[in-house]
Design brief:
The chain is mainly alpha-helical. It contains three helices and no strands. Helix 1 runs parallel beside helix 2 and helix 2 packs antiparallel against helix 3. The radius of gyration is 45 Å and the shape is rod-shaped. The mean pLDDT is 80.
Length: 196
């Protein structure tokens, strides 16, 4: 019987396997790098950019420079999209609140003006009443010689008029103080409305 002898060189086979392994590794590295770029691009577009816009909007509001008409796009229905949607609702509520504050400020200003005019009318009326009371007192003093009973009544009228004048002046002072305080409130509300 015969023996067949076969001699295979493993060195050349080993080199070919190593070369093929290197080629596969290089293709794997290239595919991995491509995948990293794709993942980075997608995460940048769908996560980083929307979060940066949300952060900028919140930062503008925190610094008092926010545009209450600003709305963020809602790119999708994930957490970032839901955050943008909540931000948009919050901006709408802020806009409504500022509008209500402005309306209230205008109404308060109108009421303060009306109170000021009424206070002026009360003061003029009180001064006129006081002047008339003084005239009555003078007339009564002239008649004092002839009618003492009328003079006593005149004193009572003068006393009541003085009390009325005092009360009117106190009321006017209170109204003037209220008008000053309302002006301060109006100024503060306007500054708040203008800063927002």
């Amino acid at each position: 019987l015969g023996i067949v002898s076969m001699k295979v060189s493993l060195d050349s086979m080993k080199k070919e396997v190593e070369a093929f392994g290197i080629k596969i590794s290089m293709v794997g590295v290239v595919v991995l790098i491509l995948m990293l770029f794709i993942v980075y691009g997608l995460s940048h577009k769908f996560v980083t950019l929307p979060l940066n816009k949300l952060r900028e909007g919140l930062s503008d509001i925190a610094n008092g420079e926010g545009d209450l008409a600003r709305r963020l796009p809602v790119p999708c229905k994930d957490e970032v999209g839901e955050s943008a949607e909540v931000f948009n609702k919050m901006m709408e509520k802020f806009g409504q609140l500022v509008s209500q504050v402005k309306d209230a400020s205008v109404k308060v200003s109108s009421e303060v003006d009306s109170l000021g005019k009424n206070a002026d009318n009360v003061l003029v009326s009180s001064q006129t009443q006081n002047e008339r009371a003084e005239e009555v007192e003078q007339s009564m003093k002239l008649l004092l010689h002839s009618v003492t009973e009328i003079a006593a009544n005149a004193e009572n009228v003068n006393e009541i008029s003085q009390q009325s004048l005092q009360r009117s002046k106190e009321g006017n002072d209170n109204l003037m103080q209220l008008q000053k305080e309302m002006a301060v409130v109006e100024k503060a509300v306007n500054e708040m409305a203008n800063s927002v």
